[in-house]
What does this fold into?
Amino acid sequence: MLKKLFILLSVAFFVLAAIVFINTFKTKAWPSHKAMAMEGLPDSAIAHMSQAIQIATISPEDTTHIDSFHFNQFRTFLEKSYPLVHQHLTRTLIKNYSYIFEWKGTDSSLLPFILMGHYDVVPVEPSAVKLWTVQPFSGEVKNNIIWGRGSVDDKSNVISILEAAEGLLRKGFTPKRTILLCFGHNEESTGTGAIAIVKYLKEKNIKADLVLDEGGEITTDKIKGVKRPVAMIGVAEKGYVTFELSVEKTGGHSSKPDKETSIDILAKALYHLRNKKTPSSLQEPVKEFLHRASGSSADFVNKLAMSNLWLFEGTVKKILSYTPEGDAMQRTTIVPTILESGVRENVIPTNAKAIVNSRININESTKQVQKFIVNAIDDDRVKIKIVGDFNTEPSAVTPINSPAFKMMEETIYKTVDDAIPAPFIMLGATDSRVYREISNGVVNFSPLVDSKGFHGIDERLPIADFQRFFNFITIIIKESDKKL
Ligand SMILES: [Zn+2]
It folds into this structure.
């Protein structure tokens, strides 16, 4: 009897092992493509990018205090640098500083493409200026790199789009499909520019087949074992919600404290919350990402696990969870970001408050997150409420068989040698999330390779990246009438 069982188990094991190995070897490397020869940048492009950086369009935290001098200066710069765009496209000002440029196509049966970006930038902390290689707003060009705040985020996008449009107009090009260039002026703060742009487009009943925004880029070193460039195309955005947790318990003199104070109760609540993991779940874009990358992985164990998610999903999740990004890819994150309590060192406070920020996985909702927090804390003395005005549910997913995603794949093959285009879920929020109201084809991608310094020190744009970006946008506009 035992012998029979042993034989049966051995057979089962070998069958399982065979399936695992067959799956692994069947997972082929993603097809390789040779990029087209790239067109050179227009002569004035580098000077334009440098000038754009020199205009310090720092995002207004309070939109009533916009630095109108620099934002107006930027408008004059655009008018001077892109005369054909201003002559042939219709410009609409939204909230005074955001823009829509409409490039009318000849075939009105085709839905427009929207190429978007933002020209506001984050400030540079005064204490960090000395850590920069150049003055942050100098737009200096050295070692074939354009340096400065905004060179990546997001003037690389705005200027590449405008250079491509101006270049095509110079050649007498007219698109079949209408192309809209939409530039926000406060993405780094409230994003009200983008919201107003979408409201305007909605009122005009304009829908789009493609909305291209910043977000993903080309990574060459972040995925273990994969030596080929992986072009990460954002196809969905996690949701965003902020909660306030508060405790009220009469305080008093610090010389004779109660067994538990408001701070103690809140601290315990946060401890429990941080110790309880939200459910993990690999959503479709993440699975597709793993599938595409794994075929080219030189790391056999990685390849084996990722090719057999049906068996090793748990292991893969565990490996992913070793890095903050990998962990955030598979679950809702919840983290305290502000604590508030107390007025004097010798007074036990009556109130203690915490602000907790959550990024919601695309299969969950704000309601579920709130329920999770209440259960994790399990103490009804801690009151919970939603605060802030930036809260959004997770976005819909742009399917990988949509024209928008296919357009990305095709254009990436033409501009990046040997690239693997792969979908991913955006962990942060961008302006493009509001465009989902008018398009099922929102994608987040910039053809920059491992970009450096955005929101930090030494933000910089290699000229080779700028050239690729310019070519990438030029191809999208030129081929926008193509059936996909
Ligand atoms: Zn940005």
In short: The first helix runs from residue 2 to 26. The chain has a mean pLDDT of 93. Residues 122 and 455 are 6 Å apart (CA to CA). The radius of gyration is 26 Å.
